[in-house]
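Here is a tokenized protein:
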Amino acid sequence: MGLMKVFSGSEILATALQEKIEAAGVNTVIKNNIQSARLAGFGNSDLAVELFIQEVDFAKANPVIEEFRLSI
């Protein structure tokens, strides 16, 4: 079992989706390439935030993810 990416986009949208998924009882991991690039001294695009969940939690999180995607 591993992590699977469920969203890639802006930091604001990734944080909003993270809150919704965690409210459903699923743990998430955010990989923020924007902050990583800034700390390393070079820029990156604004669509560089990725949201991950455990593969085993996909069935539980999928309805929340689909509802979120339809609302944006």
In short: The two ends are 30 Å apart (CA to CA). The beta strands are 3-9, 28-32, 49-54.
